[in-house]
Specification:
Layout (H helix, E strand, L loop, with lengths): L5 H14 L19 E7 L8 E10 L4 E8 L4 E10 L4 E8 L4 E9 L2 E9 L5 E10 L5 E9 L2 E12 L9
């Protein structure tokens, strides 16, 4: 039985390692999400008549060796929160995601790029107070803020939800109770 030459093994190992994505590499189909990745975003959610405004913190990160994006978020240090996984859906030929919440419902959706913005459309599964669909437009503004405008479908009628401006905040933390 012949033993492989060390030079051949070294060349093979080098080829395998060079083919593996580095820590910063992503599947190129995730390019539209790149400006959000590796960042923590914070927003004060204004509610009319609310004594204490809610604070939403989101963390966007590379996941699964660059084959997915993971988004964690929590409102008011874990009063509510969720986790999303975004992947490339070969069948749909688009980015798709699943969002799981601490409230017990989840959503499935798609991400499209329109006029330089990320447009999401999600279908709600479970009891979300009658909401059955959510649409949102995410846009990074020239000043670096993330602007998100959402609306939802409830009882067969679309409603404006909110318009939010997030700022990058490396010190903010996503927390769950």
């Amino acid at each position: 039985m012949r033993r492989p030459c060390l030079a051949v093994l070294a060349a093979l190992a080098s080829a395998v390692l060079s083919a593996a994505p580095t820590q910063t590499e992503m599947d190129p189909r995730f390019a539209p999400l790149r400006p959000l990745l590796g960042k923590t975003w914070r927003a004060v959610l204004s509610k009319s008549g609310s004594e204490k405004p809610a604070v939403d913190v989101q963390r966007w990160e590379r996941a699964l060796n660059g084959q997915a994006v993971r988004i964690l978020h929590s409102i008011n240090d874990g009063e509510y929160g969720g986790e999303s996984i975004v992947i490339w859906d070969k069948e749909r030929q688009s980015l798709a995601f699943w969002y799981f919440t601490t409230a017990g419902f989840y959503t499935t959706g798609t991400v499209a790029v329109e006029d330089g913005a990320l447009v999401t459309h999600e279908l709600v599964k479970g009891d979300a107070d009658g909401v059955t669909e959510v649409k949102a437009v995410h846009r990074v503004l020239p000043d670096g803020r993330l602007h998100v405008k959402t609306r939802f479908l409830k009882a067969g009628r679309w409603h404006e939800a909110r318009e939010t401006h997030y700022v990058e905040d490396p010190k903010a933390e996503v927390r769950f109770k």
